[in-house]
Amino acid sequence: MPDAMSPLRSLTIAAAVMMATSVSAAELNVIAAGATRGVLGQMIDDYSRQTGQKFNFTIGPTGQLRDTIASGKPMDLVITSATLMGELEKTGKITPGSRINIGRLGMGVVIREGAAVPDISTPEAVKQSLVEAKTIAYTDPKLGGTSFLHLVKIADRFGIKDDVLRKGVTATGGHDAAAKVAEGKADIALILVSEVHAKNAKLVGLLPEAIQLWTIYAAAIPLSSADPAAARAFVAALTGPSMRDLWIKAGWQPEK
Question: 107-211 — its CATH code?
């Protein structure tokens, strides 16, 4: 359930509503990276209640979003990694000047609450944690998740790629990988830090900088958007100053 809105957040939403020429009765089709799930979940009900705006969200890992966009599914707003956003900009599908960088995320190590906390202070310590784990949760390779691709990269660097893949417990995304750890179905997961939502899932900390992957995320309005005014209003609310603490609490480093 979303938390009670602060007066400042309420003002941000009110200001965003005033920016829109009208509130559409139609659903706003939003395609968003799974990394944004936590923040969206904490503000969307309040936003919908205050504005009357309805939403149709498609949320998932990068590979899944790439396929969804390629399928021609209607989209009024996209919130994706900078890499995927760059691909879209090259195709000419994004409204010029509409892109706003939201912030960046790092990857961290997740274990079940109450389990022995592994040492992740150095790359070698992270390697040892992966070696000692009996099972490792990660996004299904077919979905092309950012965290899975980076896990494979560092496992290959450590010379334990085959071992890591053999121990795999596949998930639908980083949030599901964390849930599988919380449920005891896997010992450990390396995911984006914003995706630790499950009860009993514990974030040990960020990966060491030497093997860290920082991913920037951005929002933009497609040229095909049926309601760009409503999309702009929502982005204004989502990225307003009063939302900054919420992004930080969710593990983000917002744009300054």
Answer: 3.40.190.10
